[in-house]
Design goal:
- The chain is mainly alpha-helical.
- It folds into 2 domains: 32 residues, no CATH class; 48 residues.
- It is 48% helix and 0% strand.
- It is built from 3 helices and no strands.
- Helix 1 packs antiparallel against helix 2.
- It is flat and about 35 Å long.
């Protein structure tokens, strides 16, 4: 039984001479999953925690807005302070 490629032969990862019996992702029957989703969960929880911290310590509305912006970029603050503490030049 001849397999059918799901991509045109010139765009198959096997090259221009693909005969549909190669190991293209579309022909292997395997599913490829992205396993980097846990970083998004850590960032999301960190964002919520940082937003609560910065907004709760804000004295004015605009300081709360600034705290929300800081909460979006908290990893940059974390890395900066860690490198400063380690005295990395």
């Amino acid at each position: 039984m001849e397999e059918k490629c799901c991509e045109p032969k010139d765009k198959c990862s096997c090259g221009p001479n693909c005969n549909c019996n190669c190991n293209c992702k579309c022909n292997t029957g395997r599913r490829y999953y992205n396993s980097n989703a846990s970083g998004g969960a850590v960032y999301g929880l960190g964002f919520i925690g940082a937003a609560v911290y910065f907004i709760s310590h804000a004295a004015t509305f605009w300081m709360g807005v600034l705290g929300f912006i800081k909460a979006m970029v908290w990893p940059a603050f974390l890395v900066y302070e860690a490198l400063k503490a380690l005295a990395v030049n």
